[in-house]
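Quiz preparation item.
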């Protein structure tokens, strides 16, 4: 079996399993689309153990920074007006999203951005900005768990493809 076919079969099988789990038994605990983003980031980061670490760390870091931005926009500690407040708080947190790229574990700026974007997008589209909640109603925690599990599925699909391709 060719490498492409092996990877296609592997991702099809595990992708179906992931969708079943995320939409069924784990519904509310993970988001299927965030897992697939992390899965793609894993392969984009090289598809190895270092990629797994960078994907999980980067996406969680991005989620945390988005949570900070959401909290700051809501609290508005500087007392800025409307869109100016959002622009300032987002600008500051996005600076920190990228400046860490010199640190090996957070060197995948795309993974950092994916975590930030997924968190902000989910929170804003669901009107759920409960970023201080200590359970999976917190968008930061939900994105973090979904990212970690999705990246692990990426790693598993790579390993399965390796076995199928032999």
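Solution:
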């Amino acid at each position: 079996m060719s490498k492409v076919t092996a990877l296609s079969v592997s991702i099809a099988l595990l992708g179906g399993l992931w969708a079943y789990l995320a939409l069924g038994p784990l519904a509310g605990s993970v988001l299927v689309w965030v897992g697939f983003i992390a899965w793609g980031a894993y392969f984009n980061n090289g598809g190895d153990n270092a990629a797994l670490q960078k994907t999980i760390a980067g996406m969680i870091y991005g989620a945390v920074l988005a949570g900070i931005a959401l909290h700051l926009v809501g609290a508005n500690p500087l007392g800025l007006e409307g869109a100016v407040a959002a622009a300032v708080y987002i600008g500051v947190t996005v600076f920190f999203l990228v400046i860490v790229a010199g640190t090996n574990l957070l060197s995948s700026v795309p993974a950092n951005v994916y975590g930030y974007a997924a968190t902000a997008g989910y929170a804003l589209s669901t009107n759920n900005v409960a970023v201080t909640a200590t359970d999976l109603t917190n968008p930061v925690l939900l994105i973090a768990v979904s990212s970690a599990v999705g990246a692990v599925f990426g790693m598993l699909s790579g390993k399965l493809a390796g076995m199928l391709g032999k």
